[in-house]
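Deliverable D2.4 — example input (structure tokens):
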């Protein structure tokens, strides 16, 4: 019975958020940023979204986290449900970026590359 109530609640929240989005609003997402010696992490929690709803792209050192929701019969009719972008510093290993989804939270891990500790070089003049 509890599972059915949770499913109904989730569908209700999705419907309310989608209605808000169609009318020009966007859903409220919670973003948390943490940093360690080896990586930077972004956590995103958005009511009503599952792992399949999120998209993550990296273009020219900019990380995009977004979700487009269908609201009509056609899969071509989509509206932004969530959009956020982050300009990544030069010391992020772009090839090593990974994402996981657990307990309703999207977790994006951005590992540092060898430039994190700085770069120094003596240039010889010929």
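Example output (designed residues):
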């Amino acid at each position: 019975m509890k599972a059915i109530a949770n499913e109904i609640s989730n569908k209700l929240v999705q419907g309310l958020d989608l209605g808000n989005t169609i009318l020009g609003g966007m859903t409220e997402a919670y973003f948390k940023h943490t940093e360690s010696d080896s990586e930077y992490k972004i956590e995103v929690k958005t009511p009503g979204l599952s792992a399949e709803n999120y998209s993550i792209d990296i273009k020219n050192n900019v990380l995009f986290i977004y979700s487009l929701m269908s609201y009509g019969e056609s899969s071509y009719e989509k509206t932004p449900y969530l959009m956020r972008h982050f300009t990544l510093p030069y010391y992020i290993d772009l090839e090593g970026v990974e994402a996981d989804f657990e307990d309703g939270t999207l977790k994006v891990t951005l590992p540092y590359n060898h430039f994190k500790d700085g770069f120094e070089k003596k240039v010889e003049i010929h």
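Residues 31 and 44 are 5 Å apart (CA to CA).
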